[in-house]
Amino acid sequence: MTFPAFFDDAPVIRMRDGLAKLLGTARDGVIEYRYADAARLAGHSCPTVAGAWLSARAGLRALIPLALAGSPDATARFGPAWQDRVRRLLIDHADDPAVVSVRRVN
Question: Which pTM was predicted?
Fold first, then answer.
């Protein structure tokens, strides 16, 4: 998927997420969101999506501190184990009917 070049110049939202670090999703706990992510999720880009992006950025800056406390020891032990479980679900059991089952409800 390609986006207009100016998307790369739009402000970036950076968040430190202790849970993402703990669970091993973001190695250092910092997640970057770009305007292209918002446009992709909205299915389009327009002044309303751009305004929502800027409003979310301003709100997050005001409400959420960048530093979250967490135990490095817990992260070191729990994160890899948790992500191994995620890997097994996605890779080893993706088509396992004992894990994933969809059926019609009358």
Answer: 0.60
